[in-house]
Each structure stands twice: as structure tokens, then as C-alpha cells.
């Protein structure tokens, strides 16, 4: 394939991963196990800003109560939200997208990195790995 024919597909893949990442930041998705499960890969692992390691099952169980779940108004999108900025992505290999961005949550900032992989059939794009690193207050 020529580079020209790959670029539109790469842009589409990055945009699909960004759309899915933004869905995971939505309190309605975070409070719904079924919606979140469609976006997380069964082999999902996260290293959170706290340093804690999360697996797929641990994350699905805890996600509704974690920051950004809108716990002040569970299910209605109320409460504090993650505000993303500077989100960008790159295709690392066919079906693998790496996203980087920052979030602000009530004045707490974090730099974030996610790996998304495209599944076969109806599974679509799912987050395979996520890491959050706190931004020092001085920055």
C-alpha cells in the first residue's frame, strides 16, 4: 500500500479511539457496567494516578464510584467530570492506537496515555492499557 492510501485509515482509526476515550470519560458510561465493558478490552490493565494497578474486572466493579462517575448525581451525569485537553493519537500498528492527553478534575491534573486495539467483528475499539500520571502542582 502507498502511504497516501494509509493516511485516511490511520486518521479514521485515531478518531475512533478518541471517540471511545471520550465516551469512557462520560459519567453516564462510567456508571454503566455494560457500557464500560464494551469499551474495555478483556485483557485491560490500568496503572492509575495513585499507582494502583487495575484489571478489567476490578475496573468495571469500581468505575461507578471512582472520580468522574458523577457520584453526586449517579446516572444523570451530575457531579464533577474529567475535562480532557491536548488529546492526540498515533497508529502504532494496524489496529493499535496510542492516545495521549491531559485531564483536569477539580484542579487535579494528570497526563494520560491509552492503548486502544481494534477487535474483530462487533467488538470494535477497546482500551487495552491506560496510565495516568499526576502533574505536579508547580506545572
Compact summary:
By secondary structure, the chain is α+β, with helices and mostly antiparallel strands.
Supply database-style keywords.
alpha+beta; 4 helices; 29% helix
Notes on the protein architecture:
This protein has 139 residues and is α+β, with helices and mostly antiparallel strands. Helices cover 29% and strands 38% of the residues. The protein contains four helices and six strands, in the order αααββαββββ. The protein has a six-stranded mixed β-sheet. β5 and β6 (125-134) form a beta hairpin.
Provide the structure class.
alpha+beta
Please compute the radius of gyration using only Cα atoms. Answer: 15 Å
Order of helices and strands: HHHEEHEEEE
**What is the count of helical runs?**
4
Q: What is the percent of helical residues?
A: 25-40%
| Amino-to-carboxy terminus distance | 43 Å
Main beta sheet: 6 strands, mixed
Spatial strand order of the main sheet = 2-1-6-5-4-3
Low-confidence stretches: 1-5, 72-77
In one word, what is the shape?
globular
Percent strand: 35-45%
Q: Please, what is the average pLDDT?
A: 87
Number of strands: 6
Amino acid at each position: 500500500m502507498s502511504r497516501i492510501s494509509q493516511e485516511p485509515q490511520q486518521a479514521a482509526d485515531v478518531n475512533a479511539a478518541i471517540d471511545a476515550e471520550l465516551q469512557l470519560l462520560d459519567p453516564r458510561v462510567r456508571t454503566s457496567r455494560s457500557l464500560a465493558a464494551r469499551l474495555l478490552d478483556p485483557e485491560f490493565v490500568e496503572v492509575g494516578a495513585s499507582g494502583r494497578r487495575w484489571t478489567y474486572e476490578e475496573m468495571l466493579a469500581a468505575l461507578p464510584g471512582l472520580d468522574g462517575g458523577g457520584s453526586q448525581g449517579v446516572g444523570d451525569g451530575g457531579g464533577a467530570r474529567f475535562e480532557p485537553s491536548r488529546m492526540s493519537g498515533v497508529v502504532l500498528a494496524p489496529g493499535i492506537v496510542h492516545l495521549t492527553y491531559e485531564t483536569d478534575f477539580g484542579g487535579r491534573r494528570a497526563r494520560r496515555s491509552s492503548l486502544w486495539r481494534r477487535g474483530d467483528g462487533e467488538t470494535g475499539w477497546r482500551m487495552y492499557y491506560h496510565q495516568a500520571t499526576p502533574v505536579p502542582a508547580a506545572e
